[in-house]
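Training component of the fellowship. As part of building independent skills, the fellow (R.M.) carried out the full modelling exercise for a liganded target. The chosen ligand was fe (ii) ion. The inputs are recorded below so that the supervisory panel can assess the work.
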Amino acid sequence: MTEAATVTGSRATGITAEQRAREDDVVARVLESFDGCTDARRQELMRGVVTHLHAFLRDVRLTEDEWGEAIGFLTAVGHMCDDRRQEFILLSDTLGASMQTVAINNAAFADATEATVFGPFFVEDSPAIPLGGDLAGGATGQPCWVTGTVRDTAGKPVAGARIEVWEADQDGFYDVQYGDDRIAGRGHLFSDPDGNYRFWAVTPTPYPIPHDGPVGAMLAATGRSPMRASHLHFMVTAVGLRALVTHIFVRGDELLDRDSVFGVKDSLIRDFTEQSADTPTPDGRDLGGRTWSRVHFDIVLAPAPV
Ligand SMILES: [Fe+2]
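Fellow's submitted model of the complex:
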């Protein structure tokens, strides 16, 4: 007997033996249909999705109306997609499937920094920022001084690590969402010979994921918020080490425990310490009488997979 044939949900326990046998038979026949697949991994994936899909259908005792509603929902998700909007990724994100895939593929290793979701707003070829430079590029928001060190899990500083950073402005929008080709709130720099880095950005603020489509409707219908906790995106790469895609989050943000894409990890929450307008900046930068903040984020990279 296949694994699927033994999977029945709690609400399926009251059904007759004949009914159970009929449902088992459907699962078995679908699984057998992949017997001729010569790609072992593809066969495993297809058998897995069938096993779990049928277990779900049988567990919740899906009605035919609900099946139709699900087809309609997925159709709407597809229609919402174009070259700028990927509603299926939003669906994956809001169901935690993206975060689960990140967890599976970035296994815990010593004290390596935890990964989190990539998100849809990374852009290739971001501006090069010198150490200590400002990546705001005109993005609105409170200036934020960001410092840290990149090292490996043996504690050795990593010189020349490429650090990509991107973030929303104080209104909660990434540059690419304005549709006017501006480049702001993003850049890349390299750690110095001692593994240190430093730059100016803007203090992160919360923002909603795009919620004017079917995924937003799903969130509303289930009493969920589209808001993401405030965060600053990082992607750090260095020769011989595992690439790290992560964020840092703002300690005290009320959204930390209900981030709409489940991206928050306790180990990634940092103190963004508010500085008064008369506090001298570390590099003498004149902020024109504005308040600013500072945050420190030490990054630890795992060895590259062999
Ligand atoms: Fe983001």
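The panel noted the following from the submitted structure. Confidence is low (pLDDT under 50) at residues 1-9. Residues 119, 121, 231, 233 surround fe (ii) ion (CB under 6 Å).
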